[in-house]
Amino acid sequence: MTSDEEWTPMDRTTAESLLRGDRTGLPLDRVLAAAKAPATARELAGEAAAVAAFRAATASSAGRTRRFPVVWSALSKLLTVKVAAAAFATTATVGGVALAANNGTLPGPVSAPAASVSPSAAPEPKPSPSTSPTPSASPTPSAPARPRSSGSPGAGPDRVADLCREFTRHDRENRRRALDDERFRELVRRAGEKDRARVEGFCGIRPSGSVNTRPSGSVSTRPSGSVSTRPTWDGDRRPPNRPRTHGGMGPRRE
Amino acid sequence: MVASEDLDAVVSAAQAGDEEAFRRLYRAQQPALVRYLRVLVSDDAEDVASESWLQIARDLRKFSGDWDGFRGWTATIARHRAMDLLRAQRRRPQVGVPVEFLAEMSAGDDTADRALELVTTEDAVALIASLPPEMAEAVMLRVVVGLDATSTGRILGRRAGAVRTAAYRGLRQLAAKLAQRDPRHPPEPPRSPSWKPAVTTSAAAALKEMR
Predict the structure, then answer these.
(1) Does domain B97-190 sit in CATH 1.10.10.10?
(2) DSSP readout, A49-100?
(3) The pLDDT value given to residue B173
(4) Which of B46, B48, B58 to mutate to test the interface with A (most CBs of A within 10 A)?
């Protein structure tokens, strides 16, 4: 194509070709090709959180019939330290969510993260007392209704995992006090009640006094060989996610 | 790129609870969503995409359709979440630039320059995002999300014809931006009746549809 033709105003046929992704010889080819180039790692950074939500949704809907072989084969591939650590963080979060959902205590199971971060249009009359004020509570345009734009992590699974981690670091007495702390309000909301045991349960902490090998602060200090450490979850009350009873493909421990 | 028949099966598998299938859907669709969201909410695109995926994960079982349908469905969710954010922040879409912005493109605006030289994904999306919103959305949904005019129209609440026109005009403006920035080529000449008949006809039809 000569440059004269190239800069003739494009006709509809050319436009349709561009939209379909055909090469037209126009410089626009390169721009459009770049716009739909394969994913970058950064773009996929939210995969763990998305999968965590999927897992929780699946666990809460499928209940005890859930099979988990896929998780095991995936985990066995994830043995680099970093990935395993990330995977664990994910698991920890979902564990909490799944448990709470199973107990029927989670206000709006799994949907909670979405609902809490966005003043959604869904028919949800109760104002969400989460990290963000509801839109009606902040009529001033100068104060963004949500902290997101200022770089706040929001209240997604990762945020909840962080809160759990922090909560777990407190000892029993301090945990009770921590519940009054504004910082943990989101956690309390997720757990459904301002109750130490309830929040502990939500975060996957064993009731104190029971025999449990899990170290406190486990979420952050846990070693990272994911497959070998993962079975600790079996000691927890996580009925919907017990893989060994159904899956049959993972390393059996019982 | 994975064939769409394959992904039809992946959608079904994910709906049946297959986590690996869900991962594949995420990897296949997330880039398109986050790039589309970039033209709507700019820097908040990643956050809004994350929220969208929470909802997608939650509602996937209720969804019925194939891979094409999934793409449209997820784009709809992403758009709703973006609109929620914009409402909450009481701002217009980031790309709310007046139509006459082309004339005002200052020398300091090097988006088109960079797009020509590097053509990174980021630059390309930024360039598209500099279009007026309805054009930017139409171009992104059609080119990047890969939807047809009808599906795009459903998402945008417009007729397929209007979507075609918006996408077409968007592409024209993009081409003009590039021409303007590329010294090797003269800027697009003004419309004149001396075009080849075929071009004239379709351009006239386009004009008509634009009104």
Answers:
(1) yes
(2) HHHHHHHHHHHHHHGGG---HHHHHHHHH--SHHHHHHHHHHHHHHHHHHHH
(3) 93
(4) B58
